Amino acid sequence: MKAVVITSPGGPEVLQVQEVDEPQLQDGEVLIKIEATAINRADTLQRKGLHPPPKGASPYLGLECSGTIEAVGTNVSRWKIGDQVCALLSGGGYAEKVTVPAVQVLPVPPNISLKDAACFPEVVCTVWSTVFMISKLSPGESFLVHGGSSGIGTFAIQIAKYYGIKVFTTAGSEEKLAFCKDIGADVCINYKTEDFVARVKEETQGKGVDVILDNIGAAYYQRNLESLNVGGRLFIIGFMGGTVTETNLTMLLAKRLTVQAAGLRGRSIENKGEIVREVEKNVWPAIDCGKVKPVVYKSFPLSEVSEAHSLMESSKHMGKILLFP
């Protein structure tokens, strides 16, 4: 089969489509003929040699996919050959076929194309596991997601609005802010021209928001704490703004704040299976009724993977970037 190979750590030009061996189906897994996969920031880090796959995972890029089940391993009861599905992967999505534990597979939601279903698994499982399962964002609360026009952001805005939450977001251009507003964000802040802390305080009568989802890290750490309400929760999922910072701990104590961080890729199959079950129960109905929609900025054939990575790293996109074999 064809797959994208990292020929050496480096820029987008190191990615090449090559003939490789098909993955071997194991007990409890399904083999998926891939319709589409999506690009995530973690893929660009792996390409640079900064985010190696977990032990035993596929060496190829790609953390989510959609497609048709081509084979079913032993001890798999729910899925059958021919089912149209999407799946959360530990790797291997930039290829024609991939194997994945059956517990990490989801049905394609009604009214969503097989190709567009590739938008969902990674971002949905990331947002639901962090913001809702761990930080327990609840109806009536307020929520700030940085980078609202990203794949994570576009989904987080929609699902939070579905659950009756006031949504704040940041983005770097008026075009992106308008887009965030169109998909449901209540307060849109241009981080290049406004102080998001001051704007959050202004919009919340000085209180702050209840939950923040952050992919910036060090550069925003202190400012995020200042933006939280008493009892607020900060969840960090990325370090685009660095990993080392200095902070005043008294704010954590005075406001009874919680700071947590987690990745998704390195979790156990059992934990991923639990997240996927919660997603199907709590998110799929929102997609079914059209309140949460796939946001696809552009699609590329596998042969143009370098161009797709360049677009991701330019941050010009709004929503997801797809690849298809």
Level of helix content?
A: 25-40%
Gyration radius, to the nearest Å? Answer: 19 Å
Q: Please give the alpha-carbon distance between the first and last residues.
A: 10 Å
CATH topology of the largest domain, by name, is: Quinone Oxidoreductase, Chain A, domain 1
**Overall 3D form:** globular
Content of β-strand: 25-35%
Briefly note the structural class of the backbone: alpha/beta
Tell me, what is the CATH class of the largest domain?
Alpha Beta
The profile of the biggest β sheet is: 7 strands, mixed
Fold blueprint:
Layout: E1 2-6, E2 15-19, E3 29-38, H1 41-47, E4 64-72, E5 84-88, E6 97-101, E7 105-107, H2 121-134, E8 142-145, H3 151-162, E9 166-171, H4 174-182, E10 187-190, H5 196-203, E11 209-214, H6 221-226, E12 228-236, H7 250-254, E13 258-261, H8 269-282, H9 284-288, E14 296-301, H10 305-314, E15 320-324
Parallel strand pairs: 8-9, 8-11, 9-10, 11-12, 12-13, 14-15
Antiparallel strand pairs: 1-2, 3-4, 3-6, 3-15, 4-5, 5-7
Helix pairs in contact: 2-3, 2-8
